[in-house]
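User: Second chain of the day. Same drill as before.
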Amino acid sequence: MNNWAADLLANTDALRGEAKTHLQAQRWADAAECLQMLAAIDPLDAWVRQWQVIVAIAQDQPEAAVQAAQAALHALPPGEHTARADVLFNLGQALTLLGRRAEALVALDQALVLNPALACAQQARNRLLAAGPPGQH
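Assistant: Same format as last time:
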């Protein structure tokens, strides 16, 4: 391995560790900064993209969460059903925050197709349906 490649890998691992520390401590702005740098290094890193969705929701940035979810779905291999279901659940949450209930229901339904045991997606779906048809409110 070239020296620059080894340095990049070491720096990426250190940056990922720093991001994890910030995520665990719920230091969302610091976590977002680390995740942004990691995404610049590897735009198809599904782990980074998944966490960007969660951080954007925590920072009350649902539009950014939707964009990150779309990037995460693009980065995840089709066979990663559990991870895709998690991203779709978070996409549904972000769309709900934006008042896009019909789209949120679609995302939650897709999450449940991939992982029928995803209780949080079922609960979110039930809450949306209990609020009435998506055209209301």
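The mean pLDDT is 90.

User: Great, on to the next one.
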